[in-house]
Each structure stands twice: as structure tokens, then as C-alpha cells.
């Protein structure tokens, strides 16, 4: 649609993860949203970047941020404890509930970040004001500081956003933030339906099962089941019991569709990896612990991985194909690589096939 703008993209209801170079802007381009350059996202007054799901940075519509806080809050103390990845244990030993702990940390963050502040400085100042149960002895850093995941989750609860394009990250107060006590919201289902995370998993990555959603959110399976949408419809996919929002129809995918998906594109974040890539031997190549590649999506199949290489103003793409690739598909990879190079303001030197 000619007059479609960035904020019209439905995926912004779920958040667009911005891990890696131009991740969010390229994810939008791959979905047909007119984004000529990465700064069309990073400099947009209508978009904002915040740590939310799994503590990862996501872009949302700025106007939605107060409701995003509600939607991405944990369902219970047990849920918060799991999402905090180890940080809840010393809190529990001190008799502090996980959500109470997040509220305490968010209050401290709100008091500290009165002007744009780099993450390391925020962390140092947190260490000075937080009590022992909130801190850990970090061996890699050789220092005592707050636990990483509560720090990230607590930022939005404190009314803080990330300044796009900063590394290390710079935190700043969200303009016109509603007056509220810092901390997670008590009921995530009080958020508008279009922002609720379980519904959005089914909407964008479904059909799916509660185990998929729990894995995606790093939440307890019991919470996913307890808050499963009542209007979800059970369907069978590859012999597996899953659910969809409304009647699900398996529509054919254009075989000519080809996209270079970024390493953290939403399609690759789903937890039904066996359905996306049936050969488990390929999983380690596509989802390594460190240094993820992108995926070459052809129709509904992943035909291999890709990695970018830049030297000065020249840009190339290296593709590791998992099988024979016909000439038409190779031409489409070339077209997409040229589009990505132009998106980054570079010239394509070529596509290297491994």
C-alpha cells in the first residue's frame, strides 16, 4: 500500500527485536514496510526502543509504551522469578518477592536516570544504592553489580527507554510518562488484546502450544496454560496438538518468495524449530549459542544460512546452502543482497556461495 507508514506495521504490536545491525529496520523491509534507511526507524519520533521480552531490546510504537509495560509484565511471582534468571534466589532467601524486587529496582532506576545515562554508569550507581540481595559478584567483570536480567526488565517498569544506536546502551526517561509507582503491572491481561504477548505469539507464530509460548517468554509452562486465550482453537500441525486464534487455514506460500532473514527475526524466534527446520542436524548451524547467522527463507523453507561482510563501502553476503540451489533462487538471493546493501548505504560486491 503506497501510503503505508512504519507505525502501521502489525508486528509493532509484538515488538521488533533490535539485536544486531539494522535488525529492526531490515525486519520491516522483509515484511513489505517502506523503510528506505535504518535511521527511518531509529530516528522516528513515533517509535521507541525498550528492553522487554527476554530482556531484549524491542521497538514499539511510542504511544503504546505504557500498555506494553502492562502486557510484558510477569503473571505472578513465580513467573517473575523464572524471567529473572537466577536473580530471584537471593531475593527469596531475604524474604523478598520477585515482583517486589523488580519494583524496588525500578524505583532505584527511576531515581538514578534523570538525564540520558550510559548503562555502565547506571549500573555503578545502582550498586551504591541497592541492598545485598539485589547484587551479585560478577566473575567476568571482576566487580559486584546488579543482576543483568532484572536491570533490563526493570528499565521499562521505571519509565525508561533506550537511545537507539547507542553502544553501550544509553538509558533515558520516556517523555510524558504516566504517573505510576515504578514496577511491573499486576495484571498483564489488562493490556489491550492486540498487545498481549500470548495472543501475539499465536497471532504471529501460531499455531502453537503452551510449551512454545513458555519457552519464548522464558516463563513457567503453568502460567502459559493458566492464561491461555479462551478463544484459541485447537488444530493439528504435523501431528502435533497446537492452537490458533480463530479458524486456521494452511494457505499456500508463494514459491518465489525469498528473504534474507536477520539472525533474530521473529520467524526464527519461535520455539517450534522442528517444524521450521525438520533436520535437527541443521539447528546448531542456524541457532548456535554465539554468533548467529541469518537464514535464507525460500517459500516456506529455510535453504541455508547467510552472513554479511563489509569492507569500506563494499558489502558482500556469504551463503552456506544446505543443498542444491537453482538458478532462479540464486538470482533472488542476489536481488535481496543488493537490497540489503542499499539499505545500509553500501555497494554490493557480490554473493559468495559456500
> Termini separation (Å)?
37 Å
How many helices? The count is: 15
Q: Please count the beta strands (DSSP E, at least 2 residues each).
A: 15
Whole-angstrom Rg? 21 Å
Write down the overall mean pLDDT.
Answer: 94
Q: Major sheet: size, sense and barrel closure?
A: 5 strands, mixed
The oligomerization state is single chain
Based on Cα principal axes, name the global outline.
globular
Order of strands in the sheet with most strands: 11-12-13-14-15
Low-confidence stretches: none
The amount of helix comes to 25-40%
Strand content: 15-25%
What string, H for helix and E for strand, traces the elements in order? Answer: EHHEEHHHHEHEEHEEHHHEEEHHHEEEHE
- Determine the structural class based on helices, strands and strand pairing: alpha+beta
How do the helices and strands line up, and which of them pair or pack?
Blueprint: E1 16-17, H1 23-30, H2 39-42, E2 47-51, E3 57-61, H3 65-71, H4 77-83, H5 88-93, H6 98-112, E4 117-118, H7 119-129, E5 135-138, E6 143-146, H8 148-157, E7 160-162, E8 170-173, H9 197-205, H10 210-217, H11 221-226, E9 232-237, E10 240-245, E11 258-261, H12 266-269, H13 273-276, H14 283-286, E12 294-298, E13 301-311, E14 314-321, H15 327-343, E15 347-353
Parallel strand pairs: 14-15
Antiparallel strand pairs: 1-3, 2-3, 4-8, 5-6, 7-8, 9-10, 11-12, 12-13, 13-14
Helix pairs in contact: 6-7, 6-8
